[in-house]
Amino acid sequence: MQENTMNIPAELEAAIEACYRTFNKCTLPSTLLDVCTHCCMDEKLEAEMHRLPLRQIGRRHMYAYNDSAKSEVQPTPELRYLIPRLLELVARGEPVHHSTELYLDRLGRRKADAFSLQEWASIERACQGIFTHRLTLYPWQRAEGRSLPSLFDLLLMFAMGGVDIAPMLARWHGADTPQGTLNYVASSYWDYWCHGGGAVRNAFGEDRGDFQTLMCAWLESAETKATFAQRILALDLDALPGFNSWNCGCRFTPRQLVENTFDAVAS
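The chain above was modelled as a monomer; its predicted structure follows.
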């Protein structure tokens, strides 16, 4: 039974389908997957991942698979077979691990020669498409009743998977939309500005030096700060559907959160 829940735009659908085509000749080895079936993953779920067609592997399977103890370096045939379905589930807002940041952890543990340049380009196209789509949604939007992860969590997820996030930051900078601006408010205030800056506050990102360097440079850039300050000022908050009922934390109202972010970037 498929568990896809969030509609995705045609461009992202095409990127996912291209990823399936890229890896359509890959097969899953008949041996035990890179999981622990003693205490981490149910043996029946592991067996179903071998038996089911790839597109019928659901979030229950992928969640248990990703949440299991795993090898430091991932087996290439297994990763190549499963990556299109993993990316599709992520694209559709499915939880495939207990923490968003770890959704692509197995991808980040790949061998250096796991993918050709063409194959990696297909993976990156899908990842860029996922981020671009999420940039079009308001931070309070949900998928089948579930809150969607913040864009900073997604960026760290991609970085941990070894995906280049610089193009995503550039796309965000260029997204002059209420959705792009309010996602900046939601992510940057709670994960950066309210702590005084200096580092993105996320337990999974504390030892990710490259990620922190890139994110801090982007956040502290005078151009980035000026751009989002101007966009915040241009927001017509009362005209935004769902803004006033946005549950953005217990400390501030949505309007106060916007004002606090403006104060941080305009100072």
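The chain has twelve helices and two strands.
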